[in-house]
Amino acid sequence: MSASASSFSPTVEHVVTDGEAYVRELTAELAKANRGPDGLSSREQFDRRPLNLGLFLPSMNGGGAGNYPTRLMTGKHATFEYNVEVAKAAEAAGLDFVFPAARWAGDGGTTRFNDYSLEAITLTAGLAALTERIMVLTTWHILYGFHPVHVAKMGATLDHMSGGRWGMNLVAGRKQKEIQQFGRALDSSQDRYGMMREFITMVQDLWASDEPIDLEGEYFTGRQCLTLPKPVQRPNPLLVNAGQSAAGVEFTTKFCDAAFIHGGRDNDLDELADVIQTFRTKAKENGREIKLVLPVAFLCRSTEAESNDLRRRILDAVDTEAATNILQGYQGSRSDTVPTRGQLETIVLGIGGYKLYGSHDQALEELVKLHRLGIDAFHFVCWNPLNDIDVIGEHFMPEFERLGLRTVR
Ligand SMILES: Cc1cc2nc3c(=O)[nH]c(=O)nc-3n(C[C@H](O)[C@H](O)[C@H](O)COP(=O)(O)O)c2cc1C
């Protein structure tokens, strides 16, 4: 049987006579994206929905989903089974995406905060195969030793495993404690985002080219590189970045489809509005539109009193050493200055997330306000994921739908 006939039956032997036609057929046969009832892929739905909702996976051993450096812990450990349970619950509740952090070193302290974490690429490969509709994003440390050919092929494979529901959260990496494990050093003069630019351009070239290409860059090279299969999603799966520096913002607005931004200090809406403005202006200068995704520390409860009580219990059990290490990591260097209670509070209650306090109704009102300020998506950093997903699905989702924020346009 010639390769141009449809020959993909496991029980039928066939002889390939035309390699080009065979590869074309393979590509066409395999590149079928999962589509919703409206015929749109997950990515198209993400692009067209006014408000997307995501979840940060509990892949690390720290308090809550690994974002609360406190000695108080929720019931479950950061096992693979727990992450599958949470991803499936998020999918059943109608959320749009899940993703884990990528960590190679934690922040120590009494709790050995996040010293234990599941590796993000392999974790999301498992989740891609075990879920059906939700987008699965892999957080990927691009500069810890990968080559564009690795990422092009592994990314394409992940996109196939998920049926076109995969995306990538590219992180440059910046922690000395992590980088040194790969025999590398963090040099402040290093043009991290210059390297990222070159890297992702090469990955996209590999995804676009049907012929072998040479990679000739300042940081990466390769001879006769060919990636097959291509990702299911063309021209590429969703690309996200969380850079906040000027170089990070420039990179994200030029090369990515969405930006993870910080929650601002102490829920400062003016500061958040400035961040939104910065990203929007830069994107416009680069002739693009991107989605802005805000991390939200999920601390609301049925009543305001319960939320206040949770906040107090988390704070009372603060892992001061871990919180201090995180803070000093943010500030870029170790310092002997003891952090203030206010600084510790910002870190222990969901690190860089916008803090969502109060009753469920108050929280909902706050989320709508943030959306009106310019936020296109929230990713929830839960204290107790399985409990909080129920609240999102049963309490928040109907109201977002009523407001038309979930309608794919
Ligand atoms: C929501 C969010 C998630 C992030 N996740 C990770 C992560 O999993 N691993 C990591 O090394 N860095 C992570 N970062 C850090 C960013 O990639 C970035 O390095 C940081 O915001 C500083 O910006 P800059 O790189 O432009 O200096 C995250 C940041 C944000 C806001």
TrEMBL record:
<feature type="domain" description="Luciferase-like">
    <location>
        <begin position="53"/>
        <end position="376"/>
    </location>
</feature>
<keyword id="KW-0560">Oxidoreductase</keyword>
<keyword id="KW-0288">FMN</keyword>
<dbReference type="InterPro" id="IPR050172">
    <property type="entry name" value="SsuD_RutA_monooxygenase"/>
</dbReference>
<keyword id="KW-0503">Monooxygenase</keyword>
<protein>
    <submittedName>
        <fullName>LLM class flavin-dependent oxidoreductase</fullName>
    </submittedName>
</protein>
<dbReference type="Pfam" id="PF00296">
    <property type="entry name" value="Bac_luciferase"/>
</dbReference>
<dbReference type="InterPro" id="IPR036661">
    <property type="entry name" value="Luciferase-like_sf"/>
</dbReference>
<keyword id="KW-0285">Flavoprotein</keyword>
<dbReference type="InterPro" id="IPR011251">
    <property type="entry name" value="Luciferase-like_dom"/>
</dbReference>
